Amino acid sequence: MADILTPALGESVTEATIAKWTKKVGEAVKKDEILVELETDKVSLEVVAPADGVLAAINAAEGDTVVPGTVLGAVTEGAAGASAPAAEVAPATAPAAAAAASTDGAVVDVAVPTMGESVAEGSVGTWLKQSGDTVAKDELLVEIETDKVAVEVSAPEAGVLTINVQAGEAVTPGQVIAQISASGAAAPAAAPKAAAPAAAPAASGAHLSPSVQRVVSENNLNPSSIAASGPKGNITKADAIAAIGAAAAAPAAAAPAAPRALGDREERVKMTRLRQTIARRLKESQNTAAQLTTFNEVDMTNVMALRAQYKDQFEKSHGVKLGFMSFFTKAVVAALKEIPAVNAEIDGTDIIYKNRYDIAVAVGTDKGLVVPVLRDADTLSLAGIEKGIGALGKAARDGTLTMDQMQNGTFTITNGGTYGSLMSTPILNAPQSGILGMHNIVQRPMAINGEVKIRPMMYLALSYDHRIVDGKEAVTFLVRIKQLLEDPQRALLDL
């Protein structure tokens, strides 16, 4: 007997939904034949037969939620193998798998599931049930929030719930956060009490994945008004995003718990995990590196003229608009090649010089600042850079960035000019040694060959780690970027 297992779903992806089985129990299968299709909020995966034989059991039906390592079914090896009843293989567990199967009178633990690679802890969200409430098997109980993902915890068995860990408390994978007394017959899930704080209400019979719940909660959507296109009538993330803007405001009872009022002009709101992580990393960066910022200004006349001359033809040829970020990225890569210390990092008493140019681009979202990475920017054309940055920005705003897309950058560019910033001192994106701050383009009088002329000027700021980058190198780096932008043909001709 060979088990059919849920494969690894990718970094930061902790669960998937059974989309479709291509075979039925008792049917013959061949090794590597596709048996089942899985869907996550990022990708679709195919699971193949582990051996020749007969599909003996299906343990997870279409629409069920599974985690990596879950036994989806089993194949009896050998072409003439008899099909085995489904009961011979342990049924797939829900994301909050219990330590032991339920029997009459047993108490089943509700444990924190694995929350993704490198995620060591999370915080308990709002419980959708209270201690003493009757719950149904696989009914959603609570969501565990981490700085990367939100993981839902469902009831492993039907019974009466006892909560051990309250909302807001920190938990670790495997920790028991509740127990279910499974004695007696399972009762239908009780409707949430009006007084109980909850996220957006679930549609009748609908299963909301963590990513869908996040979109629903943050945009006050009513799940019952969203057209569902997923298996068994489930709402997909695409369905929820499509409903943003069109949905009416969610009923007050469905809104997240109101922040505690502190007088008429104050309120206390708990920081999200993402905001906590941003705050911690920025402070760690300040405390670790010897940060210094040097400034310069660049005349954007030639870049703007070149862009105006070719932007229509560029968009027609490449299907993407020609912006300023591609020129800045090209200039940064050229400057990094000349001043390698700005592209390096400190590791203990060693300096790691990097011969790759993976440029991180800061993107502001409703949830906070994220910094996805444009890989191998030195190999990309202007069009390739614009397309890459555009795709990363869209993924950031849609909340679909993976951890791989936000790690191992060598240098960062941040554009405060998008919001009207005239000048700033950006904080290093540790462990990187440099970050370039772009700012607003402002028409200012400049002395040009003894004459005063109005030119579109931008202040540039380079924050750098003075432990590894000397002042001369930092100034030279910024001057080089200025030269390449004021004469953009130099960058295009690699001069």
TrEMBL record:
Q: What class of enzyme is it?
A: transferase
- The answer to whether keyword Transferase applies is yes
Entry's InterPro entries? 2-oxoA_DH_lipoyl-BS, 2-oxoacid_dehydrogenase, 2-oxoacid_DH_actylTfrase, Biotin_lipoyl, CAT-like_dom_sf, E3-bd_dom_sf, PSBD, Single_hybrid_motif
The Enzyme Commission number assigned here is 2.3.1.61
In terms of Gene3D superfamilies, this protein maps to:
2.40.50.100, Chloramphenicol acetyltransferase-like domain, E3-binding domain
Q: Which cofactor does it need?
A: (R)-lipoate
- Keywords on this record? Acyltransferase, Lipoyl, Transferase, Tricarboxylic acid cycle
The record's section on CDD domains has: lipoyl_domain (cd06849)
Q: In which pathway does it act?
A: Amino-acid degradation; L-lysine degradation via saccharopine pathway; glutaryl-CoA from L-lysine: step 6/6
Q: Does this UniProt record's set of keywords contain Membrane?
A: no
Q: What is this protein called?
A: Dihydrolipoyllysine-residue succinyltransferase component of 2-oxoglutarate dehydrogenase complex
